[in-house]
Amino acid sequence: MTTLNATIHAPNRLQICAILATSAELEFKLIREHLDVSDSVVSKHLKVLEESGYIQLKKRAEFGRSRTWVALTSEGRKALSSHVKALKAIIADAV
Amino acid sequence: MTNEQNTVSRKEASEALDSIVTNKHRLIETQRPPILLTLLASISYAAIIFGYGMTEHENLWALAMWLGGLGFAISVGLSYYTSRILGVKPSIIPKSSASMRLTLMSGLVFIILIIGGRELRLIGFEYAPHLAALLAGIILFALMKKYPTGEYVEEKNNDNS
User: Using CB atoms, which residue from A15, A24, A74 is nearest to B89?
Assistant: First the structure.
């Protein structure tokens, strides 16, 4: 039985997980620009994902400034993959 | 929030799936390295394979191979650096199983082209290195354009709608 993941299913968090799945790490600023929301909104969603163990935040000084990098953990990748399977199952069941 | 509870309709599920794929593609589209850099990497890579296929002891093709290697290293390095500045750290070791399969498959194809190009020339197929280099260049160009972050991204489709 595949179940949807309530943490990931929220639209902004789903977008965050989706774009994080495309690379090793993404910078906070890029995520904010991609979602077109404020810093605080991104921070709030990242915090929820971090508390669930789905993402990891790292602060590094690069190119003369501090940058926050976000990476999907292996647990986060599994959760996203299960969530996608659950969504596909819903579509398949409804056909 | 389960399928059985029917809290998510088919339409919502379909929209969520579309959103995942669309967002991945949106990010990838903004992160493609400049076309000239992709071209330089592909041509350099083709030069390595062509040079290796044509090398006889210490002839000039060996130099072409080394120059190709240098060009390839520079273009890949620049591409990686550009991505980092833009806020993306590409995956060097693929994270998902689909990406791993893609990497292994493309690695296998490149090995076949490298060895095949040379070995076929040695048994008389004069233009084997030319063909191998051309194919390798085209494949690398397509891979760099399609998967610039190093992870496999599924195609957009309309099956969910």
Answer: A24
Res B22: pLDDT: 92
Q: For the segment B134-153, what is each residue's pLDDT rounded down to a tens digit? A: 999 999 999 999 998 888 88
Report chain A residues whose CB lies below 8 A from the CB of B84.
62
Residue type present at position B7: T
Contacts of B3 in chain A (CB under 8 A): 1-4, 86, 89-90, 93
* Chain B residues contacting A via beta carbons under 8 Å: 1-4, 7-10, 13-14, 16-17, 19-21, 23-24, 26-28, 31, 84-92, 95-96, 149-151, 153, 160
pTM of the model: 0.83
Burial class (CB in 10 A: 0-12, 13-18, 19+), B19: middle
A1 touches chain B (CB under 8 A): yes
Q: Other CB atoms closer than 10 Å to residue B106's CB: what's the count? A: 15
Pick from B3, B24, B26: which is nearest to A86 by CB?
B3
Tokens encoding A34: 């991609």
Distance from C-alpha of A72 to C-alpha of A15, rounded to nearest angstrom: 12
Q: Rounded to an integer, what distance in angstroms lies between the CA atom of residue B20 and that of residue A63?
A: 31
Q: Which two tokens stand for residue B80?
A: 């990686």
Domains and CATH numbers, chain A: 8-89 (1.10.10.10)
Edge-first strand order for the sheet with B88-89 is A55-62, A65-72, A25-27, B88-89
pLDDT digits (tens, 9 = 90+) for B94-140: 888 889 999 999 999 999 999 999 999 999 999 999 999 999 999 99
